[in-house]
């Protein structure tokens, strides 16, 4: 009945692990982090480029509006309509900030030029507006490219470090998950692996499952006479022999002490389970060699089958524990819970 004392602690460990897994799953994976970073860099680059182009166009529009006001002022001041033939007119217009200004027919206006109709005349005042925003962009382009390149390289370096860190965290998380479900002494599954495996196998087997509950006979004497080191060697040997007997898809765990459990997901009949129990008995009856000493141990097995003996892990373990108790009491090797 020792497993009932261990159950609350195992449930607490399982609950902690579930919370830990939720927190770990909330972290971005390395691949996802790489994609997020790349998208962030592209969006940031597009934002900077778009902002620069917009700022340049705004500067050009402001300059064009200012020059249009200067053109109106020039026409009001210089009487352009009556002095179109004045040779000094281009120089006077230049003093108003109208570079390369000329008076010509409206049909001669180029796409990149600005024009203002001259009152009482069929001509227009034409000039080429200054593109300060464009000029500023061209002048600053090399500096922007250099600074952007340095920025992108810095982000790329940071991305690589974050990517490697995320991969390391994923590896450690996987390692921690493996260690959390492994018995440190034998390398088999532990109580947490049993709880998780029981639920999973009940679902996969649609409620059909066999549980073999093993308890070593004579193990206490090994600990009492030869010490716990020898007992640990015996447990490791037992774990190796049991691991060689289980089939793919079955689950072998050490619940604690000298108690082991084998979960069999696919079995044909109770006769096959009895054969497996006899095979386990024979395998564990082989002497265990510890240095120059040869030890003989035995095993008692309680067998419970779902859904006959229970539909939950707790019910199956309780039924198998009662069968194990009868097997030890009667020295019968193994007992089926349904044999009662």
């Amino acid at each position: 009945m020792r497993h009932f004392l261990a159950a609350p602690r195992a449930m607490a460990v399982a609950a902690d692990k579930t919370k830990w897994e939720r927190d770990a799953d909330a972290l971005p994976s390395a691949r996802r982090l790489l994609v997020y970073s790349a998208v962030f860099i592209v969006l940031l680059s597009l934002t900077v480029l778009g902002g620069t182009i917009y700022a340049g166009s705004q500067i050009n529009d402001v300059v064009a509006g200012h020059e249009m006001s200067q053109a109106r002022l020039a026409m009001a001041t210089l009487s352009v309509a009556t002095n179109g033939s004045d040779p000094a007119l281009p120089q006077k217009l230049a003093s108003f900030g109208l570079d390369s200004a000329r008076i010509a027919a409206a049909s001669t206006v180029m796409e990149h030029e600005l024009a203002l109709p001259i009152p009482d005349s069929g001509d227009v005042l034409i000039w080429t507006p200054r593109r300060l925003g464009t000029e500023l962009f061209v002048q600053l382009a090399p500096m922007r490219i250099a600074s952007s390149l340095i920025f992108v390289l810095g982000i790329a370096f940071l991305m690589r470090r974050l990517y490697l860190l995320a991969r390391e965290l994923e590896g450690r998380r996987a390692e921690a998950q493996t260690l959390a479900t492994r018995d440190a002494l034998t390398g088999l599954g532990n109580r947490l692996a049993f709880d998780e495996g029981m639920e999973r196998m009940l679902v996969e087997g649609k409620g059909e499952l066999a549980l073999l509950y093993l308890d070593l006979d004579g193990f206490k004497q090994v600990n009492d006479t030869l010490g716990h080191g020898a007992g640990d060697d015996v447990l490791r040997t037992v774990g190796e022999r049991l691991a060689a007997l289980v089939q793919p898809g079955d689950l072998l765990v050490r619940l604690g002490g000298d108690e082991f459990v084998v979960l069999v997901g696919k079995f044909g009949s109770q006769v096959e389970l009895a054969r497996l129990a006899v095979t386990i008995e024979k395998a564990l009856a082989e002497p265990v060699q510890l240095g120059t000493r040869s030890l003989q141990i035995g095993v008692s097995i309680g067998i419970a089958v779902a859904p006959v003996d229970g539909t939950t892990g707790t019910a199956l373990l309780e039924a198998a524990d009662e069968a194990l108790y009868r097997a030890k009491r009667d020295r019968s090797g193994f007992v089926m819970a349904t044999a009662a």
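The longest helix spans residues 30-78. DSSP finds nine helices and ten strands in the chain.
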